[in-house]
């Protein structure tokens, strides 16, 4: 068992901390939208949840999930980020406990999962858009649009955090405006009795 405090095993603190003045800063509003895209990216799946279990269980799930998942994740990140005030995230947190090998493995798998996850967003976006633009269902057109979106987003990331934060705000407003508009339009048609409908007879637990 290697002593986690051994400097040859893992370096923490001032010796390994990068100089923060070399990095671009991001203000609070872009940061909020960047976190929004990291954990959600939109209201994808809301309709499926209601269809799978009914309005009541969907609403209960949306109310409970922040307390059983989001709050513990936030507290864990706060504690570990305070304990290890360095750039590196998961890698910095795991290396002192399990060694640099497993720290590298976690960083590599997190990067790989991010690549796979990010590849889904252009496809989801096109699935929503093809209802308004039927030509997007064609294989060639769809492929070209996915490639263009991928190259554009890659270029934005290459340009740096500042421009990514600004674009995140624009895209966030663009994606949220339809939900806000539809919510306002739906107010006169609200029927609270429908909120308590539970579809036990046709429950799709896997989808829910």
Automatic annotation (TrEMBL):
Protein localization: Cell membrane
GO MF annotations in UniProt: polyamine transmembrane transporter activity; symporter activity
GO cellular component, one term: plasma membrane
Protein's membrane topology: Multi-pass membrane protein
TM annotation in the entry: 23-40, 52-70, 139-158, 164-187
Keyword Ion transport part of the UniProt annotation: no
Keyword flag Manganese: no
Sorted UniProt keywords: Cell membrane, Membrane, Symport, Transmembrane, Transmembrane helix, Transport
The family this protein is said to belong to: Belongs to the amino acid-polyamine-organocation (APC) superfamily. Polyamine:cation symporter (PHS) (TC 2.A.3.12) family.
Name of the protein described by the UniProt record: Polyamine transporter
The species this protein was found in: Rubroshorea leprosula
């Amino acid at each position: 068992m290697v002593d986690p405090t051994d400097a040859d095993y893992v370096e923490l603190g001032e010796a390994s901390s990068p100089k923060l003045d070399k990095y671009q800063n991001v203000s609070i509003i872009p940061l909020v939208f960047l976190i929004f895209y990291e954990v959600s990216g939109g209201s994808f799946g809301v309709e499926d949840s209601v269809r799978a279990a009914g309005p009541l269980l969907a609403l209960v799930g949306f109310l409970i999930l922040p307390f059983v998942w989001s709050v513990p994740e936030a507290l864990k990140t706060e504690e570990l980020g305070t304990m290890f005030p360095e750039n590196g995230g998961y890698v910095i947190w795991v290396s002192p406990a399990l060694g640099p090998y497993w720290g590298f493995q976690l960083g590599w798998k997190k990067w790989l999962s991010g690549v796979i996850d990010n590849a889904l967003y252009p496809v989801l976006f096109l699935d929503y858009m093809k209802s308004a633009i039927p030509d997007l269902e064609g294989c060639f057109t769809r492929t070209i649009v996915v490639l263009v979106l991928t190259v554009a987003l890659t270029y934005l990331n290459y340009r740096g955090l500042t421009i990514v934060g600004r674009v995140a705000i624009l895209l966030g407003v663009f994606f949220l405006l339809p939900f806000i508009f539809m919510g306002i339009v739906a107010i006169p048609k609200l029927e609270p009795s429908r909120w308590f409908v539970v579809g036990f007879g046709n429950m799709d637990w896997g989808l829910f």
